């Protein structure tokens, strides 16, 4: 049986652009994915200085990780996106690319987008942290 997931935007809060303020899950199992990085199968950074290529690799990695536990993007109940930038237009472009990707359904849940000074791998520009409610 799939988990019951309810996404809520309270009337007295602003309408968010695509995500929801609150995600409620009634499920027995939850998967907490490590931050998905733009690292390819060989262990090398993909797309140095190319945020679009890095986002595409992060999406690929996230889809593989979700699939490994029997989950889909629609089972994601919380996302945190980290982008190395203090430029809001860069953050917005990263959000747009993610919400048009095969992982898009994940970003309709409770989501946070952060501009940060640096991430764990040299040259890394983006990372996505996901929490998913697993199907029965």
From TrEMBL:
Keyword Zinc-finger recorded: no
Keywords (A to Z) from UniProt: Hydrolase
E.C. numbers: 3.5.-.-
Keyword Hydrolase: yes
Coiled-coil ranges per UniProt: none
UniProt GO molecular function: hydrolase activity
Family as reported in the entry's similarity comment: Belongs to the RutC family.
UniProt protein name: RidA family protein
Originating species: Actinokineospora guangxiensis
